[in-house]
Amino acid sequence: MDFQGRTLVITGGTGALGAAVVEAFLAAGAACHIPYLFEEELRSFPHGKRDGVTLHPQINLTDEAAVGRLYEKLPTLWASVHLVGGFAFGAIASAGKAVITGQIDVNVVTCYLTCRAAILAMAGSGAGGGGRIVNVAARPGLEWRSGANMAAYTASKAAVAALTAALAEEVVGQGILVNAVAPSILDTPANRKAMPQADHAAWPKVEEVARTILFLASPDNKVTRGAIVPVYGRV
């Protein structure tokens, strides 16, 4: 999968999954543009000084104007990969309005605004080559009953899945293919710390999920659209 000469945006690129995704795209020759909000995000990000990486600081992805400015100044955009998001655990009795609105903001609003900006950038490029968008849903967003004690998160990720499928139908005529991955529990240091007794070997590895994202965003993907691809590992 050759991304030489192709420009991508990767939101959430400074996170654990993001670092693996950025690594995969850099290895394939892509130019990666990575927005981030807080400087502390860069402490554990290994690719900040690599060729092919352009960092965009202090970008709030829930701010429509800020998102628009980010995408408007890019070179011709090929793909936009939306990894940014958040997780909230807790029974609904202890999770009030602030929790659900927060989950909608960080998971749905960021995805919607970056999808919109990416589509406008691709349509306005004049290249005529379409493009690719990859979102991140989650297993509870597909298997709702598995979302007990995380209803706000489940609802927000279900919305991401629905947005992905609807948008894929809307823009396929422009040559833009929209898909998503739906992880179970990713094998990250934070998740291992939170669940030390779990079978970590069964969890999907971030590098494995990154390879799925790489294909969905690649020019080699010519027919897959509207898919919410389960990346569950052996969980």
Task: Describe what you observe in this structure.
The chain is of the alpha/beta class and 235 residues long. It has a single domain, classed as NAD(P)-binding Rossmann-like Domain (Rossmann fold), CATH 3.40.50. It has 7 helices and 7 strands. Strands 3-2-1-4-5-6-7 form a 7-stranded parallel β-sheet, with helices on both faces. Helix 3 links the parallel strand 4 and strand 5.
What's the Cα radius of gyration? 17 Å
Going across the biggest sheet, name each strand in turn: 3-2-1-4-5-6-7
pLDDT averaged over residues: 96
Instruction: Report the sheet-strand fraction.
Output: 15-25%
Largest sheet: 7 strands, parallel
What's the CATH class, please?
Alpha Beta
> Secondary-structure element sequence?
EHEEHEHEHHEHHE
CATH superfamily: NAD(P)-binding Rossmann-like Domain
The CATH architecture category equals: 3-Layer(aba) Sandwich
Write down how many β-strands occur, each being a DSSP E stretch of 2 or more residues.
Answer: 7
Helix content: 25-40%
Question: Termini, distance in Å?
Answer: 28 Å
Question: Shape from CA axes?
Answer: globular
What's the number of domains? Answer: 1
Classification by helices and strands: alpha/beta
Low-confidence stretches: none
**Number of alpha- plus pi-helical segments:** 7
